[in-house]
Design goal:
single chain; about 650 residues; alpha/beta; 21 helices; 14 strands; globular
């Protein structure tokens, strides 16, 4: 066969691929025009502080969300175009493909344009909650008809763009006669099969928001990464994406336990008022959120384990505990890293679904950095993974961190080891990154508030090559990583102690959640949430020692506010541990449809309707269900219902700010 013939066969085989690419570019163009229409229709809402550079940033960020929406809405079309079957290459087949493309993308266009009209009423992209919001309304058709007339120009734009999609659609110019030999058919099949396989990879990456390690599927909350104000998220997102990502996620419903928010507030009120006569004490606040650092691994918390022979895997943290304030019981509020961030930094526990994966993550709310930034603090968040990993960059921006430092920032700093310190999986090894963290704090103006999220004590549970013979671990794969991270924490505090800001700083050390367990008491419904809560004050103003009571992640915010003498109201579902009596401290968890409320020496389990269990904390294996057998049950049930009512009402009605 001559070279020109081979080239011709190759070109013919690629025609469906090239047509697909051109048509998908057309889809991106339609999303771009829809976003422009959204901007112009609601320009007054977006115009404040809007510069061309910021507009480019938001539109550029929008491409990520457009990609996800386009991949999902065009999945069938992509498959049909790339099927490696030569007999499909007919005019009739590609007419069907064109109509599938036009219908799918015109529907998405209609959603985006219609939502630009609805935006002024919600100041956000429409999510699946809209169907429940108007589920019982019978005048929707009339309202839609009226808005059609009032916004005739958007209807016209829809018609023009739909017509343009149909006319500009690229049809592959192939016929069955192009494949009249076995060689041509096999070549077509091979090329299109390879293209289909490649498309699958790109589609998976597009649907998730990236293929790099540590990236979870993007959610509506990730839009915060590209905005200066929460309202701008609507411009970054697109409505098909917002609907797709919230299917099954709009799980918050206000229960009828109490007749009003005021009634439940008489039992539990998350709006905390400053203490009378509070005197500002603007110390630096440093929060270490240590990946998977369960309380079980810490020897100082488990002297009784294994007949008193258990040593744990954290000699450095043990030394820290000896000079810190700790609590008899302490817990994480969730099971995932994305649960830990809102709990630790915003005092919002995980109920039903991870908060940042729900539409309520678009509500107005802040956290420790937001409150303290208003009070004159410099704030920064550190995470050794890729920028944007786990959605932390977006969340950090949302709650008020001014600066964010990730793997790329570490690698760009010539004083450190660069990307050779990347662990090959998640991010920069903890030892060098915590030294970087310490150094960067030394460059900040006091008072400052910072938080760091470590990465090394995570699956696949490896340690740096130079430490493989040093840290042998124990019975579980994570143990050697805990030993390594403990060493990194020890070196961090050694370096911090040499800094001029050290004595003026209060340190908090917690974990994001727990992980592997080798002791039965840490595998129970409450035991699996057991996590460290350590307050270290080098100045000695906070007395060290083991205190009676229960600590949890959501207690950090109110405790910080109490330490600093913060003089304004704030929202918190936790309590100030240093000013709350031990019998009034508590912990909140949610596990498989059951709320857990731990207080007064008991863990109560409530399924939303009734109490299903109550266990003594001293019943380490939770073997004796005391439901309906203890007098504390009635009051605890009343309190957990009030907490749930406050939580759900504030989530649904966007009341997460102390106003």
């Amino acid at each position: 066969m001559r070279f020109s013939d081979r080239k011709n066969i190759f070109n013919v085989s690629l025609k469906p691929v090239s047509a697909l690419i051109i048509n998908l570019i057309l889809a991106y163009f339609v999303y771009f025009i829809a976003r422009l229409a959204y901007l112009f229709e609601n320009y007054s809402a977006f115009s404040e502080g809007l510069s061309f550079a910021h507009l480019l940033r938001m539109f550029g960020g929008g491409l990520k969300f457009d990609t996800t929406a386009i991949v999902y809405s065009n999945a069938l079309y992509i498959l049909l175009m790339l099927l490696p079957l030569w007999m499909k290459e007919t005019k009739a087949y590609h007419k069907v493909c064109r109509w599938i493309f036009v219908v799918a993308n015109s529907l998405c266009l209609a959603l985006n344009l219609a939502d630009s009209v609805y935006f002024p009423f919600t100041l956000r992209r429409t999510t699946t909650s809209v169907f429940r919001e108007f589920g019982n309304e019978n005048n929707i058709a009339g309202i839609i008809g009226t808005e059609f007339l009032n916004h005739w120009y958007l209807v016209l734009l829809f018609i023009v763009l739909t017509w343009a999609m149909y006319k500009l659609y690229k049809m592959p110019k192939t016929t069955l006669f192009d494949f009249n030999t076995a060689r041509r058919r096999w070549q077509f099949a091979g090329i299109n099969f390879a293209a289909l396989a490649l498309a699958v990879v790109f589609c998976v990456g597009g649907a998730r928001g990236g293929l790099q390690s540590g990236v979870r599927p993007i959610t509506i909350n990730n839009a915060n990464e590209y905005v200066n104000r929460p309202v701008e998220c609507a411009l970054v997102l697109n409505t098909p994406f917002a609907l797709m990502r919230t299917i099954g996620k709009s799980v918050f419903k206000v229960p009828d336990y109490y007749s009003s928010i005021e009634e439940s507030a008489k039992v539990f009120n998350p709006i905390k008022q400053p203490l009378a006569g509070s005197v500002p004490n603007k110390k630096n606040i440093v929060i270490l959120i240590v990946e998977s650092f369960g309380r079980e691994y810490i020897g100082a918390f488990n002297r009784q384990l294994e007949g008193g022979k258990y040593k744990g895997y954290t000699p450095n943290v043990d030394k820290l505990i000896a000079k810190s304030c700790v609590f008899e019981y302490s817990y994480a509020n969730g099971h995932k890293s994305i649960d830990g961030m809102p709990s630790v930094l915003s005092s919002i526990p995980m109920f039903i679904e991870p908060f940042v994966l729900t539409p309520s993550s678009m509500n107005e709310y802040t956290g420790i950095p937001g409150y303290l930034a208003r009070w004159g603090y410099q704030t920064a968040f550190f995470h050794g993974a890729n920028r944007g990993s786990m959605g932390f960059l977006a969340f950090a921006n949302k709650i008020g961190f001014r600066d964010y430092y990730g793997r790329q920032d570490y690698s760009a700093d010539k004083r450190f080891g660069g990307d050779k310190d990347f662990d090959g999986n998640w991010g920069i090894w903890d030892e060098p990154f915590l030294q970087y963290y310490c150094t960067k704090m030394g460059e900040m103006k006091q008072p400052f508030m910072t938080a760091v999220f470590t990465v090394s004590s995570h699956h696949p549970f490896v340690v740096p090559e130079q430490y493989k013979d040093t840290y042998k671990g124990g019975s579980l794969p994570i143990h050697k990583c805990i030993q390594y991270t403990d060493m990194a924490i020890g070196k961090f505090f050694e370096s911090a102690a040499k800094q001029p800001w050290f004595k003026n700083t209060v340190f908090f050390l917690v974990s994001d959640h727990t992980n592997q367990s080798s002791h039965q008491q840490y595998k129970t419904d409450i035991g699996e949430f057991s996590a460290p809560f350590i307050i270290y004050d080098p100045s000695g103003q906070i007395q060290p020692g083991m205190r009676k009571g229960i600590a949890q992640q959501i207690d950090i915010l109110p405790t910080v506010m109490g330490i600093l003498g913060y003089d304004k109201p704030y929202l918190s579902f936790g309590c100030d541990l240093l000013r709350t009596q031990a019998q009034d401290t508590y912990a909140l968890n949610y596990i498989n449809g059951v709320y857990q409320y731990t207080k007064n020496g008991y863990t109560l389990q409530f399924d939303g309707t009734k109490v299903t269990g109550i266990y003594k904390l001293s019943d380490l294996l939770m073997e004796h269900n005391l439901v309906d057998k203890v007098p504390e049950q009635a009051q605890m049930e009343k309190e957990i219902k009030a907490i749930i009512h406050q939580y759900m009402y504030r989530m649904v009605n966007d009341k997460l700010e102390a106003k």
